[in-house]
Structure to design on (121 residues):
């Protein structure tokens, strides 16, 4: 799997597409570990998050996993279409953003696609 180079990654298998309204989702590696995703719980818009803080849960037929904020910031949006159709994460994990955030800090530990590829070998 070639990981998109426009994204930054965490060691917890989340990705972030930096910008004014940074998009956050889970990686292809994460969705493969989970299996078929059946449920997604996301935070309220306006919630402040610290890097590493749990912002929601993702449930598959195998397990329930927590979702961790890759940066400090404020939730500016949630992908309600993804909540209605959580299985989209399995089909297009890097195109299926979960939340958007206004980043306020905590970006220093994000890794690039090459480093994330090495991490998941």
């Amino acid at each position: 799997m070639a990981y998109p180079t426009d994204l930054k990654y965490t060691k917890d298998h989340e990705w972030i597409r930096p910008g004014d309204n940074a998009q956050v989702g889970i990686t292809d590696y994460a969705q493969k570990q989970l299996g078929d995703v059946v449920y997604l719980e996301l935070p309220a818009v306006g919630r402040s998050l610290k890097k590493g803080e749990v912002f929601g849960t993702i449930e598959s037929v195998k397990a329930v996993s927590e979702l961790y904020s890759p940066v400090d910031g404020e939730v500016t949006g949630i992908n309600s279409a993804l909540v209605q159709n959580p299985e989209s994460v399995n089909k297009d994990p890097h195109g299926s953003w979960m939340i958007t955030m206004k980043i306020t800090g905590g970006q220093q530990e994000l890794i690039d696609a090459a480093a994330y590829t090495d991490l998941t070998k």
Summary: Residues 8-106 form a domain with the OB fold (Dihydrolipoamide Acetyltransferase, E2P) fold (CATH 2.40.50.100).
